[in-house]
């Protein structure tokens, strides 16, 4: 049996709904990992840092 035939028969064992779910999940993860992280304004970054400090001091 050739690799192409083996791959085709393996694919046929997965129903369409499962295949679609897997493709959607992979696509979503790729979009998330490739999405550039928005940079915070300096003021907002200061506020986030302050919040982190306060949470660490509280615990």
Give a brief description:
Residues 32-45 have a biased composition (Polar residues). By secondary structure, this protein is an all-alpha fold. It has one domain (16-58).
Large-scale geometry: elongated
Mean pLDDT over all positions: 82
The stretches of 5 or more residues where confidence is low (pLDDT under 50) are none
Total of DSSP H or I helical runs spanning 4+ residues: 3
Q: How many domains, in number, for the residues?
A: 1
Q: Report the biggest beta sheet as strand number plus sense, adding barrel if it closes.
A: none
Q: If you compute it from the alpha carbons, what radius of gyration comes out, rounded to the nearest whole angstrom? A: 23 Å
Assign a percent range to the helix content. Answer: over 70%
Q: Structural class, from helix and strand content?
A: mainly alpha
Biased composition (Basic and acidic residues): 50-59
Protein name: Anti-sigma factor NepR domain-containing protein
Region (Disordered): 32-59
Organism: Bradyrhizobium macuxiense
How would you explain this protein's 3D organization?
It is a single chain. The mean pLDDT is 82. The chain is built from 3 helices and no strands. It starts with a helix and ends with a helix. The relative contact order is 0.06. The protein has one domain (16-58). The protein has helices at residues 3-12, 16-34, 42-58. It is elongated. The protein has 59 residues and is mainly α.
